[in-house]
Amino acid sequence: MEEMPEASYVSPYGKTVNLMSSRPVNYSRGGMIKWEKGQYHPLKHDLHHDNKKVLLEVGSLVIPRPVIPLFRHYLARTGDLTIPEIKDTSKLVQVIVMPEEYIVPKKYAKDVQAFLKSHGVTLPIPHDKLF
Q1: Domain spans of the chain?
Q2: What share of the chain is helix, strand, coil (3-state, %, to 5)?
Q3: Does residue 55 sit in helix, strand or coil?
């Protein structure tokens, strides 16, 4: 079997997704994942699949794009959910996410999960509930 280069992966549906960068960005502080300069380009980067390597604290929560409108109601009540960035990378794990998702640090994850669950949303969203 042929190995894929480190800068891409194959989605569960068989699509090869190229990553925007081979170097992960530290998002342990949390917050909205933004498009960096020059990244939002439909001919260069996949706009619909996870394609950005980030470093997160174990136990952090990634809010996917379809859940962001509901999550905004939570943010309106609580304000920003960020913490100081964790500099010790040995305490972080590499995850592939996509811009326009929101990272909730471990400190706030249980409260956010409870809010989402009270509105019928459980993360991660099972594959059979995506469509």
Answers
A1: 8-123
A2: 25, 20, 55
A3: strand
